[in-house]
From TrEMBL:
Matching Pfam families: Fumble (PF03630)
Record keywords, A-Z: ATP-binding, Coenzyme A biosynthesis, Kinase, Nucleotide-binding, Transferase
InterPro entries, A to Z: ATPase_NBD, Type_II_PanK
One GO MF term: pantothenate kinase activity
The keyword Nucleotide-binding is annotated on this UniProt entry: yes
UniProt name for this protein: Type II pantothenate kinase
Source species: Xylanibacter brevis
Record bears the keyword Lipoprotein: no
Gene3D superfamilies from the UniProt entry: 3.30.420.40
Length: 276
């Protein structure tokens, strides 16, 4: 069997992986000014960096909002499309090893996909995600660069931004420790340091996504959530989601290739279509 190329085409960012005999090969990400340029740039770089020839590729599978711009074969290769939510579910299930979970795809906004065995279905979403971090940072910090925002946030103190249970009570409330959030951004002052603001923005977005994820699973019996997408790269995930796990008795999982799960799922969908 040849290599299956999975490509997740965003508006300006494309993620690409190769799948060979159920092994993920060297995923990469490319940013360009438009989805078509991004796709072809990512594809060419991927083949070059991994010493793969076109004859080694069995199939190309594209997904994501930018895939609508791709109407024909990529580099003359057989090319198919995968529904983005199906790709989310397949990729997250493959990478996490979980057959029953809610997949939380944290992109520009956030979508929720329920996986239960072979059943994968989109159950909703919220308009909060990486786009929220970038937009608020553009207004409040005069930057939308994720690396700069993350760097600032690492030096921030969330106690100067969020109102915590410890600020309003002399003892923990039932089920709520002293460091739990009572109100996001409630303590922020007009002259707050940029570092504190950056941390406040990231914390607000990640906590909101976590809370919405848990609510999306009500009455399903599901306790596992697989986080995928670029926001999983923020170091604050390692602090915020374990705290939510303790509060709500759930489990958040961030797979090894979390930001590439949708591209992996697109490639997997080809084998699924063939019944292999």
């Amino acid at each position: 069997m040849g290599i299956i190329i999975g490509i997740d085409v965003g508006i300006s960012t494309t993620k690409i992986v190769g799948l060979h005999e159920q092994h993920v090969l060297s995923p990469i990400r490319i940013t360009a000014v438009d989805p078509v340029t991004s796709l072809y740039g990512a594809f060419g770089k991927y083949l070059h960096d991994n010493n793969i020839s076109l004859s080694d590729v069995e199939q190309v599978m594209v997904t994501g909002v930018g895939s609508a711009y791709i109407d024909g074969p990529v580099y003359g290769l057989p090319t198919g499309k995968t529904d983005e939510f199906i790709a989310d579910g397949l990729g997250a299930r493959f990478e996490s090893g979980l057959s029953k979970a809610i997949v939380v795809s944290m992109g520009t906004g956030t979508s929720f996909v329920q996986c239960d065995g072979d059943e994968i279905r989109h159950i909703g979403g919220i308009g909060i995600g990486g786009g929220t971090v970038q937009g608020l940072s553009r207004v409040m910090l005069n930057t939308s660069d994720p690396k700069q925002i993350s760097s600032l946030a690492l030096r921030g103190d969330i106690r100067n931004i969020n109102l915590l249970i410890g600020d309003i009570s002399s003892r923990p409330l039932p089920g709520l420790p002293m460091n739990a959030t009572a109100s996001l951004f409630s303590k922020a002052q007009y002259d707050a340091p940029r570092e504190d603001i950056a941390l406040g923005i990231i914390t607000m977005v990640l906590q909101s996504i976590g809370s919405a994820s848990i609510l999306s699973a009500l009455n399903t019996g599901i306790k596992d959530f697989v986080l995928i997408g670029n926001l999983t790269l923020y170091p604050q995930c390692k602090e915020i989601y374990p705290m939510l796990e303790k509060l709500y008795n759930v489990r958040f999982h961030i797979p090894k290739y979390s930001e590439f799960c949708t591209a992996i799922g697109a490639a997997l969908n080809f084998r699924q279509q063939l019944g292999k």
